[in-house]
Here is the input.
Amino acid sequence: MARVVRNPAFVQEWASENGPIWQQEAGTMGMAAIIAAAPVDSGLLASSGEITPIFDDSGQPAVRMALRAHYTAYVDQGTGLFGKYARKITSATGKTMTWMSGPDRIFAKSTRGQPGQRFFRRGLESVFGRVDEHRWGD
Here is the structure.
């Protein structure tokens, strides 16, 4: 999830007149950049985009952008050794885990996980130059 806030150097009158226009343009440009930077597999990430115009705590217009696919945070931030807790992924029951990788079935007691692809940050930096990121669940 990302949030874009208008530069506070602009005067308050500008915010009340043009805030909704800015929110719409910033949201559309930001979401397009995030989707362009997102990895493509089934297309669920790209189709789950949501743009919400909001106002921050000081009353300034802002935009919240989120991809609502249930696995977005894992792809963006990483899992296992590369994730928040930096440890291998193991089975909850202690048994062997199994999954398909192409035509092959893989069996393992543990796995390292996957590094985060940081497509949210890359997409927003390409449009806005700088990002103050508020990660999902932090």
Notes: The chain has a mean pLDDT of 81. The beta strands are 2-5, 49-55, 61-67, 89-90, 97-101, 104-108, 110-111.
